[in-house]
Amino acid sequence: MHFAYDLRIYEGPEMPEVSSLVFRFLSDAVRDRGFDPESVLDGLPIQTDQLHNLRQRYAWDDFVEVLERVKPIVGGNAQLETLGALHFESPYFEFLSRIGRMFLSARDLYWLGTIWHGRALFMIIDDKFEDLDDGMVRVTLEIPKDYRPSEAFFHLVRGTIRSGPRIFGQGDSVVDLEFSERKAVYTIKPPPSQKVWTRFARASRAVFASKSVIDELSQQQSELQLSYRDLRTANRQVAAQARFLEIINQFGQELSRKTELEDLGQTIVDLLRTRFTFRGICIVLGNGEDEPFSMLRYDGELGPGEPNHYSFVAGARVVGKMHIWDPEPLEDERSLDLVDGLIPWISVALANARSFRAIRDVAAVLETRVDERTGELRSTNERLREEIRQREASQKQLIASERLASIGTLAAGIAHEINNPVGSILAFAEYANASQDDPEGAGIVNQALQDIMRESKRCGRIVRSVLQFARDERTEKWVEDLNTIVERTVQLADSYARERQSTIRLELHPDAIWASINPIEIEQAMVNLIRNALEAAPSQVEITVRTEIERKTARLSVTDNGRGIGDDDLARIFDPFYSTHRGSGGTGLGLSIVHGIVEDHGGKISVRSEEKLGTTIQIDLPLDQPPMEHVDA
Q1: In the CATH hierarchy, which fold is given to the domain comprising 16-228?
Q2: Which candidate among 55, 405, 497, 535 keeps its CA 20 to 30 Å from the CA of 143?
Q3: pTM for the whole structure
Q4: Where do the domains of the chain lie?
C-alpha cells in the first residue's frame, strides 16, 4: 500500500533560520549601489528597522528570495562572490582581526567559521570541515531537502571563504567549488602563513590555551545546533500531524455529505483508490450475527491472499466491514495511520446513511398508507356528500311539509282574512246598487267602486301571501293591527290547548299596535310559539300571550310554566332540526322558522328560561303608522 496523497512535511510559516546580520549585509550592499533596500524586501515579513537587532532571525526561504532579488542588482553570480568577499571587512570582525593575528591561522579561521560562525548565521545548513594534505582544507555545505535550494548562496559563500585570510592581513585563498542543486564542496588552499607570526601564534596558543576555549565554543555551538535541529524535527512532526488531521477532516466532510448508501460506498472506494494503490477493496454491511452481511461496493481484485480487515463501529455496534488487498508490503506506516484515521469517519457516515435509508423506507410505507387512507377518505367523503344531498332534499321536503301543515293550521285564519274583504265588497256593491235612484247616487257608486277596488286588492295580497309562504318566497307586507292577529291566533290554538288540558290567557295592549307585517307569517310564528309552549310539559300548561308597546317597539311574548330549557339546549333552540322533545314527534323546525320570520320583518327574538320554572319567548317588531282609514278625522 503506497500513500499517494500530497502529504508535505511542513506547510506552515518557516522557522527563523537566518540571522538578521545577513539581511543587513545585503541591504547595505543594495544601498551602496544606489537602490532602495525596501525594493528587495517588498512583500516579505522583514522590517528594515529590525535588521540591527542581533537577536532577530528570519526564514531561510525569505533569505533566498532576497538573494535572488539582489543578484541582478550586483551583476550575477560572479559579482555575488565579490560581494561575499566584503563580508569580513565589516566592523563586526575588527576585534576578531586583532585577536586572530596573534592566535589563529587561516586553517583555524575556516574551522572556526564552519563549526561556529557559519552555524550562527545559517542554522539549517548541514556543514562539514576536513583537513587535507599540504595544508589544504575542505568545507562541505548542504541545504536540507525541505528548504528552497539556492545556487546564489553557494557563490556568495565562496567569495566569503576566499577573502577570509584578509582579516589576518594575508592574501586570498584559492577556492575550488563543486556544487549541485543543494550541496556545495569547497576545496581551499590557504595563503602561506608568515613564519614569525606562525611561531608566535603557536607559542601564544600554548600559553593561553586558546585551543581549549575554541573547542568549548565549538561544543556549545554544536549542542545549540543539535537543539535547533531537534526543535525543527519536532516542528516538522507537528506540522505533519496537522496535515494528517486536515486530510482526515477533508475526507470526513466529503463522506458526511453522502446520505445514499450506494453513493457513499462508491465515494469510499474512489477516495481510497485515489489516495492508495490498493489491489482490491470490498465493503459489506451488517455484522454477520443478527444482521447478515450484504455487499455494498467492491472494486479491483478481491484476492489472492489474506486481506487487511477493518470493522466499522458506530454506537458500540458493528455496522459493516472493509477488506483491502495490498499489492505489496507497506512502505510508509503513515499510510496505515491514515486509513485507521478514516475508519471512524466511514463508520459514522455508514450509520447515518443506513438511518436515512430506514427513514426513507418508513416514509415510503407511511406515504403508501396515507395514499390508501386518502382514497378511503375520498370515498367516504363522496358517500357523505351524497348523504348530505339526500338529507338536504329531505329537509327541504320536511320544511315544505311544515309550511303546508302551517297553512292547514291557519286555514280558519286565512278564511277569516279573506272573508272580511269579501264581505266588505258585497256590502259596498249592494249599497251602490240601492243608491242608483238617489239624486246623489253617482257619487255613492263611485265611492263604492273605490272601496270595492281597495278590498279586492287586499284579497289579492292575502292570496299572494299564502302562496309566497307556501313556496318559501319573500312575502309582501302591509300595516296591520298586531292585537287583531294575536287574538285570532289564540282563537285558532285554543282548541289544541284544551285537548292537552291546558289554558291560554290573552293580555292585549289597550290600544291598537300597528306594524308593517305579513299577517300569515306572524300568525304562523305565533302558532309555533304557542305549540312549543303547550309541548313544554305533558299536560296542564298555563300559557300567557301578551302584547305591549316598549318605546317605538311592538312586543309580542309567549310565557309558559313548563319544564324550562337547560343552558346547553338554550344555545341551540333556533338551530334547524334541533328539538328537545323529538320523542313526542318534534321536527326541530318550529323555532327555526319563527326566527327566520322575525328577522325577515326586521325584528328581534329572545328567550328567557329557567329549568322547572318555565320559558318566555319575546318578539320585538318595529312600530309603524296606522293606515289612513283608521286615522281619526
Answers
A1: H-NOX domain (3.90.1520)
A2: 55
A3: 0.39
A4: 16-228, 257-367, 410-476, 477-633
